Amino acid sequence: MAKQHIVFSLNGGVVEILVEPRTLLIHALRETLGQTGSHIGCETSHCGACTVDFNGKSVKSCTVLAVQADGGEVLTVEGLAHNGALHPVQEGFMQEHGLQCGFCTPGMLIRAYRFLQENPSPTDEDIRMGMSGNLCRCTGYQNIVKAVQYAANKLRATQGA
Hints:
Elements (H helix, E strand, L loop, with lengths): L3 E7 L2 E7 L5 H8 L18 E4 L2 E4 L12 E3 L12 H8 L9 H14 L5 H7 L11 H17 L3
Helix pairs in contact: 2-5
């Protein structure tokens, strides 16, 4: 099968890779580009461990072909921190103990990042609904909700809202 040349923005930088047309984005990210933060969980789009931000939307990268990223923008968990400073979502998960084993955390962080852009002043119920496509087997979710609220409060404070 002939490989296709694709170019896209990854965490703010431009990448160029050759992929087979059937290659899933999660595999291109992890195996070709070395971005191993996003995890391969169920490979059926149910768990959300592979969630990335793609063209301004949360997507499960196990359901997107890498060739679909051509010309697009992808943000993975590796791209959240800037200049060594954690993003408020990362800080929230740390401060509020929003993780245990950490397997779901990259997908949770990226979904929370996008969710807070969609809803900067969420209620706890909004957070539960907004994060419902990402599953966690360890935490019971309460600290994840607290972590997202922490990030929402910090983002609002830094944006003067």
